Amino acid sequence: MGGAPEVNRLPGHLADQSLPSGAPEPVAGVDWTVAERNVRRAGGDPARFSASIAGALRAAGGADDVTALAGIAAWRSGALAYRDDALARIGTLGQDGREGAAAALGLEPGELDEFVERQGTDRFWWPGRASASGYVCAVGGFAGLGGAWVAPPVSGVALSTPGAFAIRAGDEWWRLDADVWGSQLSWLDAEPDDVAQAGPASIVCLPDSYLAWVHVRAAA
C-alpha cells in the first residue's frame, strides 16, 4: 500500500481535486436556489452541484431529463442520500440524457457504462482511483481547524452496512458512511457491535495525522 496522497491535508475526496465552476441556465419550473439548499441539507456541496448540473444540461442539449440529471448531479455533489436514485435513473435515460449523466459525473460518455457496472459491486470506484493508489477520501481532521476530532484516529473497522465504517479517535467512536463522491461522519455513543468481515475497502490511519483515509486495495 502506498502512502496517502500529499494533496489531501484536509478532509475531502480525491475525485474532487478540481474546483467546481459554472451555474445552470434557468429552467422553467425549477428554482436552482432551492435545489442548492436541498443539496446542502443532504450533505452535498452546492457549488459542485451547480457546476455538475450546468455541465449535464449542456451535454444533454436541453432540459428534457432535468429531474433525473438534477438527482445525478446531487449525488455527484457528495449527497449520499441520492446515490440509489441516481444510479437507477441513469438506466432510464436515452442517449442525450446519458451524455448529460456522464457530464454530471465528470466522466467521458464512453466511461458511463463501466462506471455504473462497477458501482454495483464497488461503491468507491471511479476511473482515477488506480492513479491515486487506491485512496478514495480523507475524513475527520483536527477540531481546532474545523475538523471533527480532538485526538488523532487510531483504527477503523468495516460495519455491516455497505460503505459504513467505525473509526476510533482518542476514546471516541465515530461512524463513517461513504462512497466515491460523498462521506458523512457521525458520533457514536459506544463501540459498535455490527462489525463486518474485512473487505477490499478499509480505513487507514497514519501516525501523527488527524485524517483517516478510505482505501481500496487492488485485486490480486
From TrEMBL:
- Give the domain of life: Bacteria
Which residue intervals make up region (Disordered)?
1-27
Q: What is this protein called?
A: Potassium transporter Kef
User: Lineage in the entry?
Assistant: Bacteria, Bacillati, Actinomycetota, Actinomycetes, Micrococcales
